[in-house]
């Protein structure tokens, strides 16, 4: 497990900033009090193989005593780097990015199951949107009772989406919590 290089950090932060915006700083900000114990409780990003983990610094320091081939996972898996160098967010990152989401979409109960089965979100299933959401930006998808269900990319801005017919796609699915069941054999393999 090692720290990310500068290029890897830029690639990963660009992807995370698409969903969180300026509140990305809250993920990596050191604690407000400055004693050494609190400094070790800040969160860091570490790379194991091609996967990036979000973990407390004190735990990451303890993990250095474990051989790399014996260490399978540590902390929360945020995503992985592809062979071409791009960064892909995993559904396991939902708990980290949902509280810091810049743009949100809430879907009606009749739209939850199609989304959780891997479908995109159509206009008829949208309960409400964040205001002034631009086209092709990251959104976190919530149920109407504020349970995070996944994340995606907007197909249209909120202004354009109001003019569309009910069967038009407004959010392209990138990840949903149904993946835990659909891809359980391959989700955590190395």
Biggest beta sheet attributes: 6 strands, mixed
Shape: elongated
Beta-strand percentage range: 25-35%
CATH topology of the largest domain: Nuclear Transport Factor 2, Chain: A
Q: Structural class of the helices, strands and pairings?
A: alpha+beta
Say how many strands there are.
11
| Total discrete domains | 2
The separation of the N and C termini measures 14 Å
Using only C-alpha atoms, the radius of gyration works out to 18 Å
Q: So, CATH architecture of the largest domain?
A: Roll
Uncertain stretches of 5 or more adjacent residues: none
The CATH class of the largest domain is Alpha Beta
- Averaging pLDDT over every residue, what do you get? 89
Number of helices: 8
- Helix and strand pattern: EHHHEEHEEHEHEEEEHEH
Largest sheet: spatial strand order:
7-11-10-9-6-8
Kindly state the percentage of residues in helix: 25-40%
Write up what this structure looks like.
Helix content is 27%, strand content 28%. The protein is built from eight helices and eleven strands. It has helices spanning 6-20, 24-28, 36-39, 57-63, 94-97, 109-116, 158-161, 179-182, and strands at residues 2-3, 43-48, 51-56, 76-81, 87-89, 104-107, 121-122, 126-129, 138-143, 148-154, 169-176. The protein has two domains: 2-96, Nuclear Transport Factor 2, Chain: A; 103-181, Roll (Archaeosine Trna-guanine Transglycosylase, Chain: A, domain 4). It is elongated, with a radius of gyration of 18 Å. Strand 2 (43-48) and strand 3 form a beta hairpin. The model has no long low-confidence stretch (mean pLDDT 89). The strands form two sheets. A six-stranded mixed sheet has the order 7-11-10-9-6-8. With 190 residues, the chain is α+β, with helices and mostly antiparallel strands.
């Amino acid at each position: 497990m090692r720290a990310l290089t500068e290029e890897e950090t830029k690639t990963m932060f660009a992807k995370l900033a698409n969903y969180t915006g300026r509140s990305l700083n809250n993920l990596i900000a050191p604690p407000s009090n400055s004693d050494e114990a609190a400094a070790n409780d800040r969160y860091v990003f570490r790379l194991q193989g091609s996967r990036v983990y979000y973990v407390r610094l004190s735990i990451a320091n303890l993990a250095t005593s474990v051989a790399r081939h014996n260490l399978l996972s540590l902390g929360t898996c945020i995503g992985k780097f592809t062979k071409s160098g791009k960064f892909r967010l995993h559904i396991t990152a939902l708990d980290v990015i949902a509280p810091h989401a810049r743009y949100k979409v809430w879907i009606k109960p009749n739209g939850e199951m199609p989304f959780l089965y891997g479908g995109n979100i159509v206009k008829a299933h949208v309960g409400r949107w964040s205001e002034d959401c631009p086209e092709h930006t990251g959104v976190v998808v919530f149920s109407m009772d504020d349970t995070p269900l996944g994340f995606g990319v907007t197909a249209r801005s909120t202004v354009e989406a109001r003019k569309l017919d009910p069967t038009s796609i407004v959010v392209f699915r990138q990840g949903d919590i149904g993946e835990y069941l659909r891809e359980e054999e391959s989700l955590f393999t190395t």
